[in-house]
Specification:
By secondary structure, the chain is α/β, with parallel strands linked by helices. Helices cover 37% and strands 17% of the residues. The protein is globular and about 65 Å long. Its EC number is 2.4.1.-.
Length: 534
């Protein structure tokens, strides 16, 4: 790893969601590896919203302990004496109220920040960047398809002013640039009611995204070629300039690399004893949990399928709208059908609360993944070559389900995800489909290619050179798919001529010279220079 330069600092600003924090930490590690300093500026929740942020605050502490090379700066908590009763609006309000503290932090740095990279929920932090004179970029931690749809929503709502809300349209298909038709009911709950304040806030946020200098997305181009192309072509934001788009993924946790057998989770030792591609893995992310009735239906479906399984079970939330609250250890004997654990002991393993998902997905015994379709989980499965059984729960996961199944051809749907329960019959049917049928074999072939392309994207991202100027001069810098190269090199205050040599897939810069500094990010179709303050 290159020694970080304290005079060249990139500040990352994340919201307090585990699915957002983890990819932000992975981006920080990548930036550190290219010789820049990096600080993750984390909001401190107001005292009045402590319940909402409880699990996320502990996640920040765990991530900081696990990644000592990454610097975390905790911004002071803002005053928020009367929080909105809606938990989602609490989060947005808290992030907005944190903007002055973020601006003050940026101004307090010994040398000006090279760039501020924002989570998409932190849109109001554009104001902090402007007040501190720091160029701002967005890092979207979910998929390009989501971003294409979201950026089009301000135009869609303006063009359909007075029209029906998505919540009243059932499964009517929505047609947005760069993505397959989306059933209206699969849009995130935050935009279902166009008369609601939550929806108005999200539309305001999406309308501001094009103000940034660029958008980094945790994806790789092969996986989402159509959505990436639509974003680059500007068709998602009609009538406005779209900032450059940079697929920089798949940025995922590498997983545990401990050599000692004792350091491995017990479920990995269990997997070691199973045949190749024979185990169905069920896990619903860091926050996902289902009802007690659903746990019993799932158990019956797994038992009926006859297939091996590894299942992560959490206690059902007392209030489904408060899935983010910490929960107690589940009582498996009370939650699962009587005798289930004994009857399936020879072919199944149930673990509580947590399993090392990356290692499980990469294990040779894992043959399918029942997932809530959180984007980190989708990327981890695609990178491991594991077909998905899509069971979305909340946030943008229903959208991700559409793209995984209809666009990426990487999974099947657990029907009933939008009803009270997914039946045992459906669980058994879809497990058998993926594990036994010709359709399942085609999925495995598709995912094997997805795994190969993910490895290529990572290899391109890790390709480095100590002398970018000479590479530019010799046209030797390849524009490989979904690569990310962060470089520090002298630059004039304005790059006067940068051209893409399309026939040679290389870059040339006819005005290279001397004073300040820039960050150089290469991706499939773009090159980005981020001017830094002197």
């Amino acid at each position: 790893m290159a020694e970080p330069n304290p005079n060249l600092t990139v500040v990352l600003h994340a919201c307090l969601g585990v699915g957002h924090l983890i990819p932000m930490v992975e981006l920080a590690k990548l930036i550190l590896g290219r010789g820049l300093s990096v600080i993750i500026a984390v909001p401190t929740p107001p005292a009045s919203t402590a319940d909402f942020f409880a699990s996320s605050a502990s996640a920040v502490a765990a991530l900081a302990a696990a990644n000592p090379e990454v610097s975390f700066h905790h911004l002071p908590a803002p005053d928020y004496p009367v929080p909105d009763p809606d938990p989602f609006l609490q989060m947005l309000d808290a992030l907005r109220l944190t903007v002055p503290a973020l601006a003050a932090f940026l101004r307090s740095l010994p040398s000006s920040a090279a760039a501020l990279v924002l989570d998409l929920f932190c849109v109001d932090a554009l104001d902090a960047a402007e007040s501190a004179g720091v160029p701002a970029y967005f890092y979207y931690t979910s998929c390009a398809g989501d971003l294409a749809a979201f950026l089009h929503l301000p135009h869609y709502f303006a063009a359909t002013d007075g029209g029906a809300s998505f919540k009243d349209m059932g499964k009517a298909p929505l047609r947005f640039p760069g993505v397959p038709p989306i059933p209206a009911s699969d849009m995130p709950h935050t935009v279902l009611d166009r008369e609601d304040r939550t929806c108005a806030e999200r539309i305001r946020h999406y309308a501001r995204v094009p103000e940034a200098r660029g958008m980094l997305i945790n994806t790789y181009e092969w996986l989402e070629a159509r959505a990436v192309r639509a974003l680059r072509d500007g068709v998602c934001v009609p009538g406005r300039a779209t900032p450059p788009v940079y697929p920089i993924g798949p940025l995922i946790v590498k997983g545990q690399e401990a050599a000692e057998k004792e350091a491995r989770h017990a479920c990995l030792a269990w997997l070691d004893a199973q045949p190749a591609r024979s185990v169905v893995f069920l896990c619903f992310g860091s926050l996902g949990a289902v009802s007690a009735a659903q746990l019993k239906e799932t158990a019956r479906g797994l038992e009926g399928s006859g297939h091996r399984f590894l299942w992560v079970v959490r206690s059902p939330p007392e209030d489904p709208s408060k899935f983010f609250l910490a929960r107690s250890e589940p009582d498996l004997d009370a939650l699962l059908p009587e005798g289930f654990l004994d009857r399936t002991r020879d072919r199944g393993m149930v673990v509580t609360m947590w399993a090392p998902q990356v290692e499980v997905l990469r294990h040779a015994a894992t043959g399918a993944f029942v997932t809530h379709c959180g984007w980190n989980s989708v990327l981890e499965a695609a990178s491991a070559g594991v077909p998905m059984l899509c069971w979305p729960l909340y946030a943008e996961q229903r959208l991700n389900k559409v793209f995984v199944v209809d666009e990426m051809k990487a999974g099947v749907v657990m029907e009933g995800y939008d009803e009270e329960v997914v039946t045992a019959e459906e669980v058994e049917k879809k497990v058998r489909l993926v594990m036994e049928s010709e359709e399942g074999e085609k999925l495995r072939e598709r995912l094997a290619l997805a795994k190969e392309k993910a490895a290529e994207a990572l290899a391109d991202a890790n390709a480095t050179s100590e002398d970018p100027p000479s590479l530019l001069a010799s046209n030797a810098l390849s524009l490989a798919t979904a690569s990310l190269c962060l470089r520090i090199f002298p630059s004039s205050e304005s790059i006067t001529s940068l051209t893409l040599a399309s026939t040679s897939s290389a870059l040339t810069n006819s005005s290279y010279p001397s004073k300040s500094t820039a960050i150089f990010i290469s991706s499939t179709m773009n090159t980005l220079f981020i001017p830094c303050s002197a």
